[in-house]
Specification:
It contains four helices and ten strands, in the order βαββββαβαββββα. The protein has helices at 24-30, 71-87, 115-121, 162-175, and strands at 5-16, 35-36, 43-48, 53-58, 62-68, 97-108, 125-126, 135-139, 144-148, 153-159. The chain has two domains: 18-95, TATA-Binding Protein, CATH 3.30.310; 103-175, TATA-Binding Protein. By secondary structure, it is α+β, with helices and mostly antiparallel strands. Strand 2 and strand 3 form a beta hairpin. One of its GO terms (biological process) is DNA-templated transcription initiation. Pfam families: TBP. GO terms for molecular function: DNA binding; DNA-binding transcription factor activity. This is TATA-box-binding protein.
């Protein structure tokens, strides 16, 4: 069976700097384009340009990195921001602990799906076309959700590695073989 085409769309990572606290007022002045309004949100919103990623930075020394389309880009964006923080005088002794929280990828199964039939045959699905045009297919192994559309396209959410994304595409293909050609 051919491997299903997938493309990473977004990675969400948690980033923790050990024994570091950020002065958000000061940091907001240092980071060009940073937005900080503590009455609206308790952290700084910051976007890096090269590579593109967005950060939510908290006083606790923790941050979230979202929007990168590859692990390489995400790690480079975190590394670059860490260097900016160090150069600004923040004492960072160790490299931050980085953990993948969620990966989102798109699939192309290169065929159409009968979503009504799939919803009847599989208990781990939800399909309400009046509310949302996609079928929600929950997988146990890997523990992800795959949204399927009539067009044969899909979206995988909840993965923590590219390996899980590949497994999810393969599993959907095995569970939903294409109809025989007449």
């Amino acid at each position: 069976m051919a491997e299903i085409k997938s493309e990473l769309q977004n990675i969400v990572l948690s980033v923790t700097y050990k024994d570091v606290e950020f002065d958000l007022e000061e940091l907001a002045r240092l980071l060009e384009g940073a937005r900080y309004d503590p009455e609206v949100f308790p952290g700084i919103a910051y976007k890096s340009q090269e590579p593109r990623a967005s950060f939510l930075i908290f006083a606790s020394g923790k941050m979230n990195c979202v929007g990168a389309k590859s692990m390489e880009d995400a790690k480079l964006a975190i590394k670059n921001l860490t260097e900016v923080l160090r150069k600004s005088g923040i004492e960072i002794k160790e490299e931050p602990k980085v953990k993948v929280q969620n990966m989102v990828a798109s699939f192309d199964f290169e065929r159409e799906f009968d979503l009504e039939r799939i919803a009847r045959e599989f208990k781990t699905t939800e399909y309400e076309p009046e509310v949302f045009p996609g079928l929600v297919f929950r997988l146990d192994e890997p523990n992800v959700v795959v949204l399927l559309f009539v067009s044969g396209k899909g979206v995988c959410a909840g993965a923590r590695s590219e390996e899980e994304i590949k497994k999810a595409g393969k599993k959907i293909s095995e569970l939903l073989p294409p109809p025989p050609v007449a």
